[in-house]
Amino acid sequence: WTAQARPQAAPERLLNAYSNTGKGWTGGDTTNSVKLSGGRTVWIFSDTFLGPVNPDGSRPTTTPFINNSFVVQRGSSLKTVTGGTPSNPTALVTPPANGWYWFGAAQTSNAGRNLDVVALRFEKTGPGQWDWRWASNYVARFDSKSLKLKKLIPIPSAANVQWSAWLQRDGNYTYIYGVEDLGASKYQHVARVRGDDLTAKPWEYWTGSEWSPDESGFARILEGVANEHSVARWRDGYLLVTHDTTELFSKRVLGYFSCSPTGPWVKPVELYQTPETGADGSYGDANIITYNSHDHPDRSRSARTRSRS
After folding, report:
1. Tag placement on the chain: N or C end, fewer CB within 10 Å?
2. What residues form DSSP beta bridges with 40?
3. Do the bridges between strand 173-181 and strand 186-194 make them parallel or antiparallel, or are there none, so unpaired?
4. Which contiguous run of DSSP H or E holds residue 11?
5. Which H helix or E strand runs over 208?
6. Is residue 177 a contact partner of residue 199, using CB atoms and an 8 Å limit?
7. Which among 118, 112, 102 has a CA at the least distance from the CA of 47?
């Protein structure tokens, strides 16, 4: 199979225009999106810069930086949601004394009343910029109307898998995609839970041939996925979209096909190359990297157009 891709002007243009106002969110990491009641879409971000911005588009050194935030879209209107107060904004989930929470995959639960966001807890291990490690997994549960945090709930964390890459509802189950991050190598793993609440029922783990209640008994499904990737229904099967992590600082976004949400993932095809990446990219800067590309199925017009990254 073959694929074509092109940048989607909306909502990129809308978010860029909003960030240029400097009145709230001006840029963030991660980027997941979930449709909520009332015609709203919540854009979910991890590390976040807030306004103001300088006339040339740069940020003052005093600009606020927080570890997670929401931007709520209703039509062409955007609103930033943080913790704290307008004069002293803070992360939506208060960071622990020695670390922070990184937002990942998200979905609604309890008939849409909850917005559940997988939150990875990271801990500092020393004074250096890169002295930190992943520690454990949680669900940050928000009221989907007020977007106030209701509780922070631990989820399985004992097998060195960050269960935050993607959530996919299919039939009676929610499939949970995680990544075993070994630095140079990254492996996809799959779990599932009955229903839409990740905290209400026991998890099952895919061993490569069957489902097991043993968290340590699962299989490595695919090597080379990014920490954030996506799995969505597509035509008569499933499409996995990921940045290629078999290459260091790759510009390649790949698509894999499977007849099952558990793989095996076959027939990889290049969907796109990010034009910004590296010294020969649009910025002409070797320090510019791109990563964690994935689908936004909630923004697709049909199952045949779900290959957008």
Report:
1. N
2. 36, 74
3. antiparallel
4. helix 9-21
5. none
6. no
7. 102
Local confidence band at 299 (pLDDT 50, 70, 90 cut-offs): confident
* Per-residue tokens: 108: 């609604």
Q: What is the pTM of this model?
A: 0.94
Q: Are 43 and 70 in contact (CB under 8 A)?
A: yes
Tokens of 154: 């631990």
Neighbouring-strand partners of residue 222: 188
Q: How many angstroms separate the CA atoms of 283 and 281, rounded? A: 5
268: buried, middle or exposed (CB in 10 Å: 19+, 13-18, 0-12)?
Answer: middle
Q: What is the pLDDT of residues 68-126, one digit of tens each?
A: 999 999 999 999 999 999 899 999 999 999 999 999 999 999 999 999 999 999 999 99
Q: Which of 287, 265, 264, 288 is nearest to 276 (CA)?
A: 288
- Per-residue pLDDT tens over the stretch 216-274: 888 999 999 999 999 999 989 999 999 999 999 999 999 999 999 999 999 999 999 99
- The SS3 of residue 307 is coil
Q: Which of 98, 91, 90 is nearest to 127 (CA)?
A: 98
